[in-house]
Amino acid sequence: MLEILAADPQATAIFVSRELHIGLINGAMMKLWNKETAVIDQTLEDAAPEFNAFIPVMQSVWDTGQTYTATETYANIDVNGLLRSTPFDFEYRPMIDAEGKTYAILHRASDATERIRSAEAALAKQAYERDTRLLLRDANVEIQVANEQISLLKKEIHDSAEKLQQRMGEVWLLGRKLDKSQNYLSALQLELEESYKQLANTLEFAELGSYDLDLKTGLMECSDQCKIHFGVPPEARFDIADLIACILPEYQEFVERSFSLSIANHTGYEVEYQIRRPDSSIHWVKASGTPKYGSKGTPLRMVGVTQVITIK
User: Chain-wide mean pLDDT for the chain?
Assistant: First the structure.
């Protein structure tokens, strides 16, 4: 068992006393702690004093025999003498003997930085899309108002030739306003296209796929990266029925229930599940999404991101 834990890609350490002497630490945990020298048989306080804040928690686990689990909890990592605050998911699990006494603590941890960055990127994308829609809506309203004013002005010119000279000035001014509005809309469109390119580059760098699902028709607009996650060529259609068919049967009910609860409760969802690609390979996928509603609260769309995650 110790050899298995030592070779496990999951960062793992075992503490063998209430004073937290290190009985085992694998390479992944040494890398996570940013340690290069051996720390076996040392106490946590001596080996990594930057983690002293966690010692009372671990001793409580030793005394009570209760597992302690935390997510996205920040700890200081010693990097060349400087402390860098880093988010972690971790667990302290007591190992209990036949007499019900703790004889060791199994500590497993992982760096949560990339997951937090991915979530922040998804939120930034949603905020950007919302702001862009508002800008386009306002620009369209301005153009519509200008066009209506031009129509009324033309009717007045047609009905009264005597007022032609008087109205010509107004037409000229209104034409300038329309030109400015159209120039503004063109510039805004160019800015939007550039922003979408930047967003696509950001998503590609983070290896995130994006999708926009029409809840009424089941049709989806997916990024190339999203299709790649499911083993689908970028040029192929990939709709919700295709996605569900990729999910392994044992995860389908769980995914559909999470999806339905998200819509019913007006909340986002985040799930992890396994899929089978067309080439029969099995992969873990993480998907998250946010439902969008009409003015009467009718669910219209689900937008979100996908990511292929580390093998479970």
Answer: 87
- CA-angle at 27, arms to 49 and 66, nearest 5°: 60
Side by side, the strands of the sheet bearing 68-79 are 22-25, 11-15, 102-111, 82-96, 68-79
Please report which confidence band the pLDDT of residue 81 belongs to, taking 50, 70 and 90 as the band edges.
Answer: confident
Span 35-53, average pLDDT: 92
- Specify whether the CB–CB gap between 29 and 123 falls below 8 A: no
Q: Are 262 and 291 in contact (CB under 8 A)?
A: yes
> Full-prediction pTM beyond 0.85?
no
> What are the structure tokens assigned to 247, written together?
């999910």
16-31 tens-digit pLDDT? 999 999 999 999 999 9
CATH fold for the domain made of 2-111: Beta-Lactamase (3.30.450)
DSSP secondary structure code for residue 66 in this structure = -
Q: Where are the domains of the chain?
A: 2-111, 113-206, 207-312
CA dihedral 215, 221, 226, 229 (to 10 degrees): 70
Rg (C-alpha) for the chain, rounded Å, is 29
**Second-level CATH architecture of 207-312:** 2-Layer Sandwich (3.30)
